[in-house]
């Protein structure tokens, strides 16, 4: 039995002083009204209404329940109104998880703009490179950098970033320039610990043929900025996303390698628990980010 619905039916029967009139008000049948009252009385173990062919009256138990049920239903209606308003107007705390480097470089400059537009939203930003369980850890939204999307949650693509193999001019002057992927086996490389393929770098040529190569890494790191710094210092060859090294490529501080070969692109995703009952604060943030990164993302300008 739906006890809240049963209470709603009971209160309406008392207010309308009849089963048929209550059924009309509730847009249901008199039989359904009768069933709800019968089930409610059975559940409570007491008679609520004295019924005869000519009149209906409340029992003592019915009077007590009617007064309390009226208050309860009014409070529920008020709660529903508050919740409904919250879904229509962006407000409240919005907890967001994002990768460290991407969050600092490309999200941090956007937060002031968002807060100016939506002053009733309070941002709580956590920059963590590991993949979090957004439901278990209490996030409303996560920004993910991924080649495979999200199988567990709803996701919206915000942008694409290219993975680029590169090295500093100083490193290349000292050690030479690799021409094909297999040349990397003779070079010092810097590995990214979170890469799904570990130290096997998987290139595609212009015909779409796979060219995997097992590289020798002089250093591993789980942070892209650390890999970038090592490459800028001439320690070795890296692959990193254009959102991280785009400015270095434009300025010539890093040189792209292996023309004619490419690594799989990655997507920047907004990941959230469900498309159903999406709160206004999450919806406007996703739209805001999609608009900020539309067209040519800032990291690919002149890269």
Give structural notes.
- The chain is α+β, with helices and mostly antiparallel strands and 303 residues long.
- 40% of the residues lie in helices and 25% in strands.
- The protein is built from ten helices and 15 strands.
- The protein has a five-stranded mixed beta sheet with strand order 4-3-5-15-6, with helices on one face. It has a three-stranded antiparallel beta sheet with strand order 12-7-13.
- A hairpin with a 4-residue loop joins strand 1 and strand 2.
- Helix 1 crosses helix 2 and helix 1 packs across helix 3.
- The N and C termini lie far apart (64 Å).
- The mean pLDDT is 87.
Please name the defining characteristics of this protein.
303 residues; alpha+beta; 3-stranded antiparallel sheet; elongated
DSSP strand tally: 15
The helix-and-strand class reads alpha+beta
Number of helices: 10
Strand content: 25-35%
- Give the quaternary arrangement of the chains: single chain
How are the strands of the biggest sheet laid out side by side?
4-3-5-15-6
CA(first)-CA(last) distance: 64 Å
The major sheet is characterized as: 5 strands, mixed
Portion in helices: 25-40%
Low-confidence stretches: none
Rg on CA atoms, Å: 31 Å
Element pattern in H and E: HHHEEHEHHEEEEHEEEEHEHEEEH
Short structural summary:
With 303 residues, this protein is an alpha+beta fold. It has 10 helices and 15 strands.
């Amino acid at each position: 039995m739906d006890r809240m619905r049963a209470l709603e039916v009971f209160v309406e029967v008392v207010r309308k002083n009849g089963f048929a009139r209550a059924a009309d008000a509730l847009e249901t049948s008199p039989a359904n009204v009768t069933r709800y009252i019968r089930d409610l009385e059975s559940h409570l173990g007491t008679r609520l209404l004295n019924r005869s062919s000519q009149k209906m009256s409340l029992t003592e138990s019915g009077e007590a329940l009617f007064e309390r049920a009226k208050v309860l239903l009014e409070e529920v209606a008020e709660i529903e109104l508050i919740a409904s308003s919250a879904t229509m107007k962006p407000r409240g705390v919005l907890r967001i998880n994002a990768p460290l480097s991407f969050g600092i470089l490309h999200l941090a400059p956007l937060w002031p703009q968002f807060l100016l537009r939506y002053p009733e939203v309070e941002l709580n930003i956590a920059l963590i490179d590991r993949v979090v369980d957004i439901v278990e850890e209490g996030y409303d939204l996560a920004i993910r950098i991924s080649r495979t999307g999200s199988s567990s949650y709803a996701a919206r693509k915000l942008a694409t970033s290219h993975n680029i193999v590169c090295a500093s001019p100083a490193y290349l002057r000292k050690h030479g320039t690799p021409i094909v992927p297999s040349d990397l086996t003779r070079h010092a490389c810097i590995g990214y610990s979170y890469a799904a393929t570990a130290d096997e770098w998987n290139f595609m040529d212009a015909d779409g043929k796979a060219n995997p190569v097992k590289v020798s890494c002089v250093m591993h790191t789980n942070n892209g900025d650390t890999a970038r710094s090592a490459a800028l210092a001439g320690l070795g060859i890296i692959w990193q996303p254009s959102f991280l090294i785009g400015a270095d490529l434009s300025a010539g501080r890093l040189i792209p390698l292996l023309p004619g070969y490419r690594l799989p692109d990655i997507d920047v995703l907004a990941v959230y628990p469900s498309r159903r009952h999406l709160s206004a604060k999450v919806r406007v943030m996703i739209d805001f980010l999609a608009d900020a990164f539309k067209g040519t993302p800032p990291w690919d300008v002149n890269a």
